[in-house]
Amino acid sequence: MSGNHRNGQYAYRRIQAVIRKRIESGKLRPGDIVESERELAKIHKVSLMTARHALADLAREGIVERKHGAGTFVAPPKIHFNKLMSYTEQMASRGLSARSKIVHLSSSETDPEIAARLSLPSASALAVVQRVRQADDEPFALETCYLPAHQFPGIASPSLERGSIFGVLEREYGVNLTYADEEIDATDADQRTSELLSIPRGTPLLRMRQLIYSSKGIPTIYVVGLYRSGRHTLLIRRFR
Amino acid sequence: MSGNHRNGQYAYRRIQAVIRKRIESGKLRPGDIVESERELAKIHKVSLMTARHALADLAREGIVERKHGAGTFVAPPKIHFNKLMSYTEQMASRGLSARSKIVHLSSSETDPEIAARLSLPSASALAVVQRVRQADDEPFALETCYLPAHQFPGIASPSLERGSIFGVLEREYGVNLTYADEEIDATDADQRTSELLSIPRGTPLLRMRQLIYSSKGIPTIYVVGLYRSGRHTLLIRRFR
DNA sequence: AAGTGGTCTAGACCACGGC
DNA sequence: CCGTGGTCTAGACCACTTC
Fold first, then answer.
1. Over 70: is that where the pLDDT of A126 sits?
2. Which pLDDT band, with edges at 50, 70 and 90, does A4 fall under?
3. Domain layout of chain A by residue ranges
4. Which superfamily is assigned to B87-231 in CATH?
5. Of 3.30.470.20, 3.40.980.10, 1.10.10.10, 3.30.365.10, which CATH number belongs to A3-74?
């Protein structure tokens, strides 16, 4: 037979979706036990291996924890450490909406140092998007994104006021971002930055310079972020 | 039958061990193709599902990459970013020697906020070790470590001038540190810090507050580090 | 078309945990 | 003891890549 993919999707995905929904809706809380492999197999009319696949895969994602001889339990919600997330995604994960104001747009700047970081010839045209990030109508960060202009024609557009660059890149240009190397240090606000963030000149700022890579390890975006101290702390988990 | 666990171990582990050895010995190099599921099944006289399990599990570990329709390939070796390292270890990994000067030692301070971070009663005695970190005889960081005084008697000793706290904890107290959560932001130098680091008051500093956990997830050390901007940048890799 | 990984079946026995 | 997850079989068909 095998033709059990009735509505399209795979059986193990359907089973996962059911469990996920029960967790998201609060019907299942952390520590609660999930149906056993055998129960799931009966309920969804699949073989044991398929039910097992569904649970093992959820465990790999950290959604549930499996205890040999005991059962499968809802895992405590994970804190997303060290995840490469756009500002929009970070805000969404805290239940806040992302607001930003574009303060500079260009698609033909040049900057030899930044071009070098993106592995481009030094005279390459760069698309630049500079935005002030806001929380509660209060500006707390100035973010400047640099991309190869020729590779992303039309990216420097006012539509980014609401959307996320990550999203646009992934949806409209088919680019998947996979990881970023970051340099972090402290600096202080220059004239323009202090005006844009409504802070005194010389206020200490956290500076984060990210080189974001697409799949296959191609450097794709360079982002310089300046964050008001106090308003923003970076969280990192490191392992020994 | 099922009785194929001849020598004890599981079949899929044996298959993995064979592949691992070929990679470690250099017979298989990154990018090289590994035997297909069907080949492995024949070679090791197991079912397809078992061969599959062996490969899927190696892929989950990042040892190999699987490409649908193409094959299974040896993955490039992983770079160890975001490693929890002591200052001493960081310097050593760059071929430099760690130098530091102890500017404050105590084994009976109290600080309710820090005690709380270490999951201790708020009046608990804290051992405090404050050191100025130097590179080329130039001070570039002020680091303050807080530990539960009762748990580490005698830790606040001048012998730390040359040694690393990590090392002492692991060797003399049998504590294994496993991971740390960090908060990073920017601040500026107060009076005492500016004197200790020989910088003007108000100079922007990178502030890193680490809560370091031992195995079993017990918070063990709280470290506040203040780093001169320019002299020190933090490198992080994050993944999507 | 041939070969690959991905999903799936309908069972089996083993190893572990809690009662 | 019973129920749990963990390993395993001997196949099948589907989805994808490469030639």
1. yes
2. very low
3. 3-74, 87-231
4. Chorismate lyase-like (3.40.1410.10)
5. 1.10.10.10
B79 touches A: beta carbon within 8 Å? no
Is the C-beta of residue B172 closer than 7 Å to nucleic acid chain C? no
Nearest-nucleotide field for A56 (CA, C1'): D5
Distance in angstroms (rounded) separating the CA atoms of residues B141 and B225: 7
Report how far Cα B10 is from the mean position of its chain's Cα atoms: 31
- Mean pLDDT value of segment B135-143: 86
How far apart are the CA of B52 and the nearest CA of chain A, in angstroms?
Answer: 13
Distance CA A234, CA B208 (A): 9
Per-residue pLDDT at A194 exceeds 70: yes
- The single-letter DSSP state of residue B201 is T
Substitution target from A61, A87, A206, A236 for chain B, most B beta carbons within 10 A: A236
B41-54 confidence digits (pLDDT tens): 999 999 999 999 99
Q: Three-state SS for B117?
A: helix
CA B52 – CA B48 distance, rounded (Å): 6
DSSP 8-state secondary structure symbol assigned to residue A83:
B
Is A156 exposed, middle or buried (CB count within 10 Å of its CB: 0-12, 13-18, 19+)?
buried
What is the rounded distance in angstroms from the CA atom of residue A207 to the CA atom of residue A186? 6
**Which residue's CA is nearest to the C1' of nucleotide C6?**
B68
For the cut 70, the answer to whether the pLDDT of residue B206 exceeds it is yes
Antiparallel, parallel or unpaired: β B177-188 and B99-109: unpaired
B182 shares contact with chain A (CB less than 8 Å):
yes
In B, minimum Cα distance to A85 occurs at B240
Q: What is the pTM of this model?
A: 0.75
When mean pLDDT is compared over A62-66, A96-100, A233-237, the highest value belongs to A62-66
Q: Which residue is nearest to nucleotide D6 (CA to C1')?
A: A68
Query: Model confidence over A24-49: pLDDT tens digits?
Result: 999 999 999 999 999 999 999 999 99
Chain B contact for A202, CB < 8 A? yes
Nearest-CA distance B182 → chain A (Å): 5
